[in-house]
Design a protein that fits this description.
Length: 613
């Protein structure tokens, strides 16, 4: 069978990759071990959170899937980090696990240009340095102009509950044992990482009425620009670990894969197991645990992922308030799996070892549905363009959180599962959730990724922002009118515009609705973005100027054949780093580990000499 693009893996990375390639008109084949697990939520039943919500919005702005489906399957919505300002503000949605998975499967099966096939990918086929297809474990061969590998935790996956281990990509699903070996044969460096998930509790055995209730927030904006509202129909509950919990966990560490001396692969630092929390923070008296509804009759205890033995997991849970008589629906588990060093990829997620081969998701050393989805969309987009002979598309650190992640992964690599944070972005005020569509949808429209409805909604948002800006700039507020706000910090001595007054910390857009009834006719999303742009105009302008200055540096290309080892004025360590990573530009070199400002100055001098010659 011949097609344009083959995607191996039906998780969040593979699904976005296949849908993106198909939307661009590429004849796409999605190979997955089980059709009924396409888009399954392997761990927590939620999307979003700090920076992750921004990634979901970026996927949607590029025409992707996960934001739309998260909105449709949402059962609780919250905005996190509101007090930290717009750069840190993030959306999180608890979703119905079954509804999301069914929606993902149906979406894939109904997508034009996409064929879904059950099978296990086993070997990447390469001819003359370029990928030409994929062989399955049963010997069948599919030919294509580009291939995307999105194996999640399935590559030689091994699950652990205490000292009991089982080969699996997820509990109950067989691993993929040959694909990472195929990559190694092509010259890719393969390593091992690990992660874990929490146990599930039978809902009827928890005494939720004794706990603090955590309701949703009605004011949360949907992830997707295509949706106007989301369901908010359930609550979570908050409980805490305690010294007795910690004692039970400490006694069980001898049987945890992370601490029993078996040499487990590196676990995630930023989503630590309860074992890591107790081991690394022995003086901490308690850790919070959010009890989240996870389908009919099941509760997900967020905050205690674990690889402990099942009996220890149950004993740990029963030490917590509200869970004294709880029963396990099923225990949590740890999983080890192969990943490929992402430094051997370009920022477009294309292999440097084989043209037309792309990797996305946890096989690149990341963690999280959102990180996987964003990588998958970019990889699928570029796979389709490669198959058609078009140039690759990359996103810069100033354009998108996805660009920050791509640059971090391909430039610095990973030593533990990578998680996206807003703090990783130098210009996070420019990369907010609310303006993802303004940043990326014009590009998606140009590339052919964006549907007509999203394009219309983007145009309407821009029109409403401009109308709102005109209202605020033309509205003159006198000292007498400012006194009606009832806020001393907003009183003025001489007339000023509403736009200028909005820049004050105590001001908010809602204060002006009485003076400007026309604001009520404008789209709420447009007003959200407009308010931020006006209030933080000075800071935004400063970051834009910095981006422009560094863009010029970023574009200073280093010769592809530059002999770094022959350069004088650089330490042996710096030469080794440059030779190993082969940065394409001076800006990329500056983000490599160990590259000092002095070393960059030396490189800049050599570049200047090359230009003069």
């Amino acid at each position: 069978m011949k097609c344009d693009v083959i995607v191996a893996g039906g998780g969040h990375a593979g699904l976005e990759a296949a849908l993106a390639a198909a939307r661009l008109g590429a004849a796409t084949l999605l190979v997955t071990q089980r059709i009924d697990t396409i888009g399954v939520l392997s761990c927590n039943p939620a999307f979003g959170g700090p920076a992750k919500g921004g990634l979901v919005r970026e996927v949607d702005a590029l025409g992707g899937f996960c934001g739309q489906m998260a909105d449709l399957a949402a059962i609780q919505c919250r905005t996190l980090g509101e007090s930290k300002g717009p750069a840190a503000r993030s959306t999180r949605m608890l979703v119905d696990r079954v509804e999301y998975c069914v929606g993902a499967r149906n979406w894939a099966l109904d997508q034009d240009n996409l064929t879904v096939f059950e099978g296990e990918a086993s070997e990447v086929l390469v001819e003359s340095g370029r990928v030409c297809g994929l062989e399955l474990a049963d010997g069948r061969i599919f030919r294509a102009g580009a291939v995307v590998l999105a194996g999640g935790t399935f590559w030689r996956g091994m699950t652990w509950r205490g000292r009991e281990s089982t080969p699996a990509g997820r509990v109950g699903e067989a691993p993929s044992n040959r694909l990472s070996l195929s990559l190694a044969a092509l010259g890719h460096t393969i390593g091992r990482l690990s992660t874990c998930t929490a146990p599930r509790i039978k809902a009827g055995t928890a005494r939720l009425e004794t706990l603090e209730q955590q309701p949703g927030q009605d004011s949360v904006r949907p992830f997707s620009s295509l949706n106007d509202n989301v369901r908010n129909i359930t609550s979570c509950w908050l409980t805490w670990t305690n010294p007795e919990t910690h004692r039970v966990v400490a006694e069980g560490l001898k049987d945890s894969i992370f601490y029993c001396g078996e040499g487990a692969a590196a676990p995630p630092r930023y989503c630590p197991s309860i074992e890591d929390k107790i081991h690394h923070f022995p003086n901490r008296e308690r850790h919070h645990v959010f009890l989240e509804p996870d389908g009919e009759g099941v509760i997900f205890p967020s905050g205690i992922p674990t690889g402990l033995a099942p009996a220890v997991q149950l004993g740990m849970l029963r030490t917590m308030r509200g869970l004294e008589e709880c029963e396990l629906a099923w225990p949590g588990y740890a999983i080890e799996y192969d990943f490929s060093d992402p430094r051997e990829l370009s920022p477009a997620f294309e292999s440097l070892k084989a043209r037309g081969l792309f990797l996305a998701g946890q096989v690149n050393g990341t963690s999280g549905y959102e990180e996987a989805a964003a990588q998958g969309l970019l990889a699928g987009l570029n796979a389709a363009r490669t198959a058609s002979g078009a140039s690759l598309v990359t996103l810069s650190r100033a354009e998108a959180l996805t660009g920050v992640m791509a640059d971090d992964l391909t430039g610095r690599g990973v030593t533990e599962p990578y998680r996206m944070f807003t703090s990783r972005a130098e210009w996070r005020l420019l990369l907010r959730e609310d303006n993802a569509d303004l940043r990326l949808s014009p590009l998606a429209e140009k590339l052919g990724l964006l549907d007509g409805e999203r394009s219309r909604r983007l145009a309407r948002k821009l029109e409403h922002m401009e109308a709102g800006r005109r209202m605020l700039e033309q509205c003159r507020i006198t000292p007498e009118q400012s006194g009606l706000f009832g806020v001393s910090a907003l009183e003025v001595k001489e007339a000023t515009t509403a736009a200028e007054l909005l820049k004050r910390p105590a001001a908010c857009l809602d204060l002006f609705r009485g003076l400007l009834p026309g604001l009520d006719q404008l789209e709420p999303r447009a007003l959200d973005t407009l308010e931020t742009e006006i209030k933080f105009a000075g800071y935004i302008r400063r970051q834009e100027e910095e981006v422009e200055r560094l863009r010029r540096e970023e574009e200073a290309a280093l010769p592809v054949d530059m002999d770094f080892m022959s350069l004088t004025g650089l330490s042996a360590e710096v030469k080794e780093v440059l030779t190993r990573h082969r940065p394409a530009t001076l800006g990329q070199a500056g983000r490599l580990p160990g590259l000092t400002p002095a070393a960059l100055s030396v490189l800049a001098v050599y570049l200047k000499r090359i230009e003069q010659n």
